[in-house]
Amino acid sequence: QSKLSGDEVTPTKDRSESASSTPEHQAKLAPSTSTPVPPHEERSAPEGTSSPTPRPSDTSEHKPSSSRPHSIPSEGYMTATEVQKLLKQQELQFEEKLLRAELASGEKEKKLRQAMKDEQKEKNSLGENISELTKSRDALLKLVQQYKGMLAALVGEKEKEKQNQEERIKTLEQERNQALEDLANVEVAFSDVHRKYERTKQVVDTLKRNEETLRGAVSDYELKLQKQEQKFIEFQKHAEEKIQLANEEFETMRRANDQEMTKMAALLKKAEMKIMSLQDSNDRKTRENQELTQLCDDLINKVGTSH
């Protein structure tokens, strides 16, 4: 693209340089009777194409011709035929520029087409006012300058677009590198998850085997539990029978004990009454002994005093 843009800019420079060295310029400096020759633009062909072969009409511009119009233009101006040829050449060059610009940048297609339409209108106006165009070559030079500015702007835009594309490429490369790094991390994470899955699968298989073993053990324990429950029921019945017998024996012993206690209480009462009777008898005999002792002492005292 940069080469193409460079090719587009070069002809205008060569044309401006050739314009200063044309016979027309020399004719202005040194008056002559010869007809001025319009500036001839040299255009470099695009890469991959051959240089355009000069048309006979183009080469004949530098030769005097007897078929020129009867109206001889003023010195320093172009004839109508030369203007038509120049317009045709400018049209071909402009179409070639548009084609190159269209191939170089699809985004500027609409603007270039509009410019082509404007140029077509301008060419039609120039065709209708050919006498004015012959008197206003400076306007054509200004138009060429506008073309140069357009091409320079197009080149600048292409350079800017190229820089933007390079920045986008760098951004895409960074995103690609980041995506590759993320992909590597995802692959590592997937490998880790796969290893964990394999370990979990082994653990699940082990747990299933343990579950089957435990279910078998649970079945065995349930059978044993049923047997133990049956034994417990039998033992409970036997214990209840024993308890019933023990209760009956206890009740019998309690009644016998109550009877024995009643008997012992009666004997105790009888013994207490006997003890009370004996104690009363003992007290009475003690009083009687004391009275007898006192009586004996009195008698002894009386006998002693009499002697």
Automatic annotation (TrEMBL):
It comes from the Eukaryota. Keywords: Coiled coil, Cytoplasm, Cytoskeleton, Phosphoprotein. Transmembrane segments: none annotated. It is found in: Cytoplasm, Cytoskeleton. Gene3D superfamilies: 1.20.5.1700. Residues 108-300 form the Transforming acidic coiled-coil-containing protein C-terminal domain. One of its GO terms (biological process) is mitotic spindle organization. Residues 102-125 have a biased composition (Basic and acidic residues). The keyword Coiled coil applies. This is Transforming acidic coiled-coil-containing protein 3.
